[in-house]
Design a protein that fits this description.
CATH topology: Lipocalin
Strand order of the largest sheet: 2-3-4-5-6-7-8-9
Helix content: under 10%
Shape: globular
Oligomer: single chain
Number of domains: 1
CATH superfamily: Calycin beta-barrel core domain
CATH class: Mainly Beta
Radius of gyration: 13 Å
CATH architecture: Beta Barrel
Mean pLDDT: 94
C-alpha cells in the first residue's frame, strides 16, 4: 500500500459500464483526467483537464478523486483492478436546487497502460 497522494494512474485508459448510467471511458495523463460517456443517458458528454489525485489503498486498488468546478461536481472512485470493479460517489451541481448525489458501481470492460 502506498500512502502517497499522487498521479499514479497516468498513462491509463479505462472503460467501465454502470448498470443504468451506461459506459464511460476515462484517460489519465500528466496528472489530469478526461472522460467521455460512450453509451447511456449521458452519451456524448465529455470532460477534460481536471486535476486528479490518487492513492494506492491495496494491491491494484486505488482511491481517486477530482473536482469539476464548472458543473460544479466532485467525483470519488474506488478502482479495484483485481475485482474488475469501479465504485463511485459523485456530488453534481452541489450548492444548487439541482444537486444530485450518485453512489454506484460499475464493471471494468477494458484497461490499457501506456
Amino acid at each position: 500500500m502506498n500512502d502517497e497522494v499522487s498521479h499514479l494512474l497516468d498513462g491509463t485508459i479505462m472503460q467501465y459500464t454502470y448498470g443504468e448510467m451506461g459506459t464511460v471511458r476515462t484517460s489519465y495523463n500528466d496528472g489530469h483526467i478526461s472522460f467521455e460517456w460512450l453509451k447511456g443517458p449521458l452519451q456524448g458528454q465529455t470532460g477534460d483537464g481536471f486535476i486528479y489525485r490518487s492513492r494506492e489503498v491495496g494491491e491494484n486498488q486505488y482511491l481517486v478523486n477530482w473536482h469539476e468546478p464548472d458543473l460544479p461536481g466532485f467525483v470519488t472512485l474506488f478502482i479495484d483492478f483485481k475485482a474488475g470493479q469501479v465504485h463511485s460517489s459523485l456530488i453534481a451541481a452541489y450548492g444548487s436546487d439541482e444537486e444530485q448525489i450518485h453512489f454506484d458501481s460499475a464493471s471494468i470492460d477494458s484497461v490499457e497502460h501506456a
